[in-house]
Amino acid sequence: MFTSRKPTTLTTLLVILYFVFGGLFSGTALAQWENLPGKAKEIAAGGDSTASVWVLGEDNSAYKWNENSFSWEDFGGSGDIIAVTNQGRPWVVNNKQIYRLRGRTWQNMPGKATAIAAGGGTVWVLGENKTAFKWNDEAFSWEEYGGGADLIAVDSNGIPWVVNDKQIYRLRGRNWQSMPGKATAIAAGGGTVWVVGENGQVYQWNDQAFEWMNKGGKASKIAVDPNGIPWVIQDGAGTQIYRLRGN
Q1: Residues 6+ away with beta carbon under 8 Å from 74
Q2: Cβ(117)–Cβ(152) under 8 Å?
Q3: pLDDT (tens digit, 9 = 90+) per residue, 111-153?
Q4: In a domain, 5, yes or no
């Protein structure tokens, strides 16, 4: 499914993007978005200073990005949703069952989930009742934090952000704070939080201004690596994968 490709020169990349993908990313300079090999249905990122980016391919298997070979490495398994911890370890949800990767083996975890996210040394899920739960590895169980949501992301401080019926919230202590704007996808990493708006464009949260900054693009799914760089999937382009180069 995923084939290796040598990095193109900037000039070649610009030409390819202009003629083949022109119009896909209309809200910002086209050259800022780099098209990557392969196709995916879900994407997630984690790691510390070194980005660990994973996708679920069209065959539902988990793949890890290898920058040196500019290709995706197959780690098997099967999932509907994926998250990646600060240690670069992927967790997946497959038919509501939760798994995490141990070496090359997928370990079945307790509980069921409809969404999953990781950040700040924590892992969170949305249960079957849409409530948010935080993983406690010592107790080997999930701790309930209430709320109700469809999507979840976790920032670098371990604070979950959720989307419920397109409305955005973040956890403050034990209370869920309503945030401005609406979103169809959300992700966090590298001290930043990003969403895909109702118009399909990509936005970055500015806490000082308490508003979302439009970064253009066109996406359906989003992940953010530990350097604060968003990676997206664009369904309209046939589940193509992109990452932002420059702001």
Answers
A1: 2, 61, 62, 63
A2: yes
A3: 999 999 999 999 999 999 999 999 999 999 999 999 999 999 9
A4: no
What's the pLDDT score for residue 22? 32
Q: Is residue 18 part of a domain?
A: yes
Other Cβ atoms closer than 10 A to 14: 13
Tens of pLDDT, residues 44-55: 999 987 899 999
Domain ranges, residue 50: 10-244
List 224's β-bridge partners, or say none: 230
Note the pLDDT of residue 13: 36
Q: Given strand 71-74, what is the order of strands in its sheet?
A: 42-46, 52-56, 62-66, 71-74
Average pLDDT over residues 197-218: 95
What pLDDT score does 32 carry?
85
Q: How far is the C-alpha of 177 from the C-alpha of 161, rounded, in Å?
A: 9
CB 100 within 8 A of CB 110: no
The model's pLDDT over 153-164, given as tens digits with 9 standing for 90+, comes to: 999 999 999 999
pTM (two decimals): 0.86
For residue 54, being part of any structural domain is answered with yes
Does residue 4 belong to any structural domain of this protein?
A: no
Which CATH number belongs to the domain containing residue 211 in this structure?
A: 2.120.10.80
Q: Which residue is it, tokens 């999953």?
A: 116
Are 29 and 210 contacting, i.e. CB atoms less than 8 angstroms apart? no
Count of structural domains within the chain:
1
